[in-house]
């Protein structure tokens, strides 16, 4: 640091060492110089002045940024901070840093953010992207390695890591059927959500296999959505409800309290994600637990492989598991 309190530059070092700026640049970047005495003076001056290199500028000169862009559809959803935590743990162990942006569940905004990040990031991770397949197909032209989580990309040259939501849904339906429920409702997620498609697939398969009837409605991904849409399923006589995620389930539970309908004696409720608060609700929520932090770790492993080798990793699917708590029981007689 200079006496004025400003950040030390190579100009300051050159002045103190009484050498040219080009000599300082060569020494600090590890390139050979003809006179080792000059090199020693440069290093001594840099130390005395407390010089710290500008890593961004250095990376730019090398043609890399050491920055990984991450696009998230909704940072307010507790699912995604856990994914980011697992991702950050792995990335921070190396030389990269994360730049996280929120698309606000807007597919068009998501596409624009990816295009902006492509010019300043070494690679991009798309968390549960909402954009249609036609938009995804335009991304290879950006020339940056990409990994998607919770989204199938077909034959596009992206790494993909997902969670087997269909299996999780089958487990939830089997649990409810075993309790004796024959009329099950589903508070579905956003229409642009690939995970919601998997859950509906698992719901349909399980219902057919187990001989139960299913009613569904498109709710969304927030507690407000669950609160607003639950009456549509109650009107259809369901005795149990599965929600797209735990936030939607929380909204449904709030609506049931308003209606003075006890859970689980009047209606069983199942969530998805197993966010931390799920275990402390009244009653504690039965939910499908998803390996959120591991999803982040595996996303970085796939992107790191592309950065190091140029090879796109094979699609990976992580398991989901049902956690039974106290929001589900046999239907009332």
List keywords for this structure.
434 Repressor (Amino-terminal Domain), transcription, 3 domains, alpha/beta, single chain, transcription cis-regulatory region binding, six-stranded mixed sheet, 12 helices, LacI family transcriptional regulator, Rossmann fold, six-stranded parallel sheet, HTH_LacI, 333 residues
Detailed description of the structure:
With 333 residues, the protein is an alpha/beta fold. It has 3 domains: 10-53, 434 Repressor (Amino-terminal Domain), CATH 1.10.260.40; 64-164 and 292-320, 3-Layer(aba) Sandwich (Rossmann fold); 165-290, 3-Layer(aba) Sandwich (Rossmann fold). It has 12 helices and 12 strands. It has a 6-stranded parallel beta sheet with strand order 2-1-3-4-5-11, sandwiched between helices. A 6-stranded mixed beta sheet has the order 7-6-8-9-10-12, sandwiched between helices. Strand 8 (240-243), helix 11 (246-258) and strand 9 form a beta-alpha-beta unit. Helix 5 (79-91) packs across helix 12. The longest helix is centred in the C-terminal third of the chain and has 18 residues, at 292-309. The radius of gyration is 26 Å and the shape is elongated. 43% of the residues are buried. The model has no long low-confidence stretch (mean pLDDT 91).
């Amino acid at each position: 640091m200079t006496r004025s309190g400003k950040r030390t530059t190579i100009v300051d070092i050159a002045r103190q060492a009484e050498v040219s700026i080009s000599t300082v640049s060569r020494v600090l970047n590890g390139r050979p110089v003809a006179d080792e005495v000059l090199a020693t003076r440069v290093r001594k001056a840099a130390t005395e002045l407390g010089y710290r290199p500008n890593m961004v500028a250095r990376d730019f000169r090398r043609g890399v940024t050491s920055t990984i862009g991450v696009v998230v559809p909704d940072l307010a959803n507790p699912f995604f901070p856990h994914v980011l935590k697992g991702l950050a743990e792995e990335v921070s162990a190396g030389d990269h840093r994360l730049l996280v942006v929120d698309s606000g569940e807007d597919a068009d905004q998501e596409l624009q953010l990816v295009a902006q990040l492509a010019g300043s990031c070494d690679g991009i991770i798309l968390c549960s992207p909402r954009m249609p397949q036609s938009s995804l197909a335009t991304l290879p032209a950006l020339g940056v390695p990409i990994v998607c989580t919770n989204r199938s990309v077909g034959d596009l040259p992206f790494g993909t890591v997902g969670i087997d939501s269909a299996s999780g849904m089958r487990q939830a339906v089997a649990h409810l059927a075993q309790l004796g429920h024959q009329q099950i409702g589903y508070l579905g997620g956003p229409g642009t959500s690939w995970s919601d498609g998997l859950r509906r697939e698992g719901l349909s398969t399980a219902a057919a296999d187990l001989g139960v009837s299913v009613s569904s409605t498109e709710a969304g991904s927030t507690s407000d959505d669950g609160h607003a849409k639950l009456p549509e399923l109650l009107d259809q006589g369901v005795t149990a409800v599965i929600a797209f995620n735990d936030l939607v389930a929380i909204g449904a539970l709030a609506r049931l309290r308003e209606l003075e309908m006890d859970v689980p004696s009047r209606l069983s409720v199942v969530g998805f994600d197993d966010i931390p608060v799920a275990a402390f609700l009244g009653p504690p929520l039965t939910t499908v637990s998803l390996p959120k932090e591991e999803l982040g770790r595996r996303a970085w492993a796939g992107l790191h492989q592309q950065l190091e080798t140029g090879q796109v990793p094979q699609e990976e699917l992580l398991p989901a598991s049902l956690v039974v708590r106290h929001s589900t029981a046999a239907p009332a007689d």
